[in-house]
Each structure stands twice: as C-alpha cells, then as structure tokens.
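tool=predict chain=A
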Amino acid sequence: MLRKTIALCLSLGALTHPGLILAAGDHAHDEDLSKGEISSYRELTPTEATIQTVLDTYGQAMEQGSVEIMEQAVIPGDFSTIESGYPNWSWEDFRDNHFAVEVQQFSDVDYDMGLILGEFQGDLGFAIFRYTASGKVGNNPVSISGLGTAILELDDGQWKMHHLHTSAPRNQLQQAEEKLGGHGGDSEGAAHSDHDGDGHSEDDHGTHAH
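tool=predict ok
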C-alpha cells in the first residue's frame, strides 16, 4: 500500500510539475522537455530504449485488444491507472471494466506512446510520455492526444508498469464525448465500475472521455 501511495504521489507530481520528480533523482537532467519525444531529435539510450519498449508493448496491447500482451506491459495484481480523473484501482478493475469494454467498442485502433523523459533507480523507474490514440466507434472516427506518466517496477526481471496516469486537454475530451455521446463510449477508455470509489457505477455518472 505504501508503494502504491508513493507511486500515485510521484505520478501526480510528475504530470503537473515534471521538475519535482527530476529533483528527486541523484542527478539533474539537462534535457529540454519542450522538445517533446526523444526519438524526434536523438537516439534513445539503452535505458530509454527499455522504457520505450514497455510503452510500445502497452500500445500494442491496446491496438490488438490483447490481455496477454497487456500483462507483459503492466504488473497483473499490482497495477492501477488514472485517466483524466477516472481511476481503476486494480488490474482486475482495469482489465474487466475498462480494457475489455474498449475492445468491444473500438475498431481500427492506433495507440502511440513516445518517451519524453525516463530513468531507472534501483528496482523503480518512471516515464514521462506523449500519447496519441485513435480509432472508430461504429463509423465515427475518434482521436485524442495528451501527456502521461508511468511508474515502472522491475517485476521478476522484467520492467513493467506499476501505475499509469494520463491526461488530455479538456477541449479534446469534450469534443470526443460529443462524438461518442450516441454510442455510450469514450475516447480512451470506456465504462468504469465505481471508477471514483464513491460506490456509483459509470451509469450513475454518464459517459466520459479521458
């Protein structure tokens, strides 16, 4: 529980103030984060390439709708996610009430995550990234892009996501919700059961986009 609390605090801090998590490391970073994705201006270091592989695996799982691939990207039994304020506090909740619903609703999915900054320290690490997700709900094309942070953990010799936090601009979320209003879906993840921990299901809150 303590590790999850630390992960949530680091993720929230990094998303809003990247300097907070950078200052927590043993050394400062000289990267100009405004340049965007690292791959757009230089080659990745071995560490960055490993982190990018984790991000790519997550994106591949989203595109193929594969639980098996997703389990290679996240830690089953010890994974949580918050997407623009909507949480899934466990792997089972994410798998059954978010991921499985997306697979049924979306087609022609393209999900890209590009590393902006990341590092490992011991058996923990972090990633700051930009993501773009697109697909179709029926004949309705939908796309959205934003920023995210991931807390990574070395799990049985393999780096995986322990916690994921993504956020998109409000205007994109509103546009996506308008497009999908007739389909009961959202742009990045669909229905969540009791997504905010208040005992209400998604039906009580209406649809949302992340």
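The beta strands are 80-83, 86-88, 107-121, 124-137, 140-155, 158-167. DSSP finds seven helices and six strands in the chain.
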